[in-house]
Automatic annotation (TrEMBL):
<dbReference type="InterPro" id="IPR032345">
    <property type="entry name" value="PnbB"/>
</dbReference>
<dbReference type="Pfam" id="PF16155">
    <property type="entry name" value="PnbB"/>
</dbReference>
<protein>
    <submittedName>
        <fullName>DUF4863 family protein</fullName>
    </submittedName>
</protein>
Length: 180
């Protein structure tokens, strides 16, 4: 569990920096420019969340089978500026996948909403694996869904770990998914 504490400690300076920003397209661009996959922060967080999945303390609770798992790593605290830390593992090799408009295999997760938005570090485990954000498909990097946004998490191209930070720990699964 030393790596879990290391991930939390690595997150705190980042959360201090972003605590007063509003998630959305502008912040997503900033995150990818400032803390993209070549940055030390991205490299450290990606390494630690991969270790967490391997050690079994991150994304260890099945949501809908072994290819769709998540876990809350830390509830909101004063130390994290009231952000929670959660990890999700999704793998589009799942037998429940479907084909998207580009003929890629896609795994769709649970429809949910972000009352206060979300900051989401995308860590592909397979070359070309991507997570669908509100601005489109994202490989290694960040998504930042707006406050009030709702969507299905979707992955294609293999397995992805999403390490996400929720302001006030808020996420809601109480919304009716759109038809179709």
């Amino acid at each position: 569990m030393q790596s879990r504490e290391e991930l939390i400690q690595c997150s705190i300076p980042f959360l201090r920096e972003v605590k007063d920003m509003t998630p959305g397209a502008e912040m997503e661009r900033w995150l990818n420019e400032t803390y993209g996959e070549e940055s030390a922060l991205y490299q450290d967080l990606a390494r630690l969340i991969k270790v967490g999945v391997e050690e079994g303390w991150a994304a260890n609770q099945e949501v809908d089978g072994p290819n769709y798992r998540r876990s809350r790593i830390l509830e909101p605290t004063a130390d994290t500026f009231q952000f929670s830390i959660t990890a999700v593992y999704m793998n589009s090799a799942d037998p429940r996948r479907f084909k998207d408009e580009d003929d890629h295999d896609v795994l769709r997760g649970q429809y949910h909403g972000h009352p206060y938005g979300e900051l989401n570090l995308v860590v592909p485990l397979n070359k070309g694996a991507e997570l669908k954000g509100l601005q489109g498909w994202q490989g290694a990097g960040w998504t930042a869904p707006d406050p009030g946004s709702r969507h299905y998490p979707e992955v294609r191209g293999g397995a992805v770990i999403a390490l996400f930070y929720l302001p006030a720990g808020r996420i809601s699964y109480d919304f009716k998914a759109p038809a179709g």
